[in-house]
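hi support,

uploading two proteins for the ticket. first:
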Amino acid sequence: MTITVHIPTALRRHTEDTAKFACAAADLNDLFSQLDQKFPALKPHLRDEQGQIRRFLNVYVNEEDIRFLGGPSYAFQDGDEVLLVPSIAGGC
């Protein structure tokens, strides 16, 4: 089973400019563990000190917010497309 993780430009400085990452992850926790190993600099941008998903990180699976699919316990399916989207604030 393979899923593809799309990494947005805002996070690519932590992934050596990698835009896509393919892996076999069972759920979000497994995915984050694999990303932690492959891209250690990305780790603090995914989870907080308690190991929970960062408040301002949105995760989409096949363009659907993972919160509406069961949250972190959602079991990835073969071919799933995962998008990590950090909330960005600012401006005037």
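and the second one:
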Amino acid sequence: MAKKDLQRRTVIDPAVADLLSGMERKESESHFPVKERKKAIKERNKIQSRKENRVTYDLPAKLRQIIKSVAEKEGIPASQMVTLALYRFMDQYQNKEIDLGQYKEISKSPRYDWNLVIPDKEIPKFK
């Protein structure tokens, strides 16, 4: 039987990895000319300030494509269009115009009690 080349895998705590990458980035930026360094810092701060507004949701590919197409057609950011749609949905939900109960099915996940299952007949047909 051939011996396998066993190597110990290095496991780094995410906080330590983040710290190290930050140090590496600062080290590489320190070699930039002052103007480029200021620009990089400004861009990094801009990205950092937007992080609080970011969130990730799983959406069907077809819906993502529709959102992208409409946003491009209207010349607006997709995130702003989705924000409007979600505000309107939440208003309808609070006014009891939408009943989520009809879409609930028991979830097998220990994290959630329910999953929302949307029947095909409820999904609008888009051109």
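thanks. also noticed: The chain has four helices and two strands.
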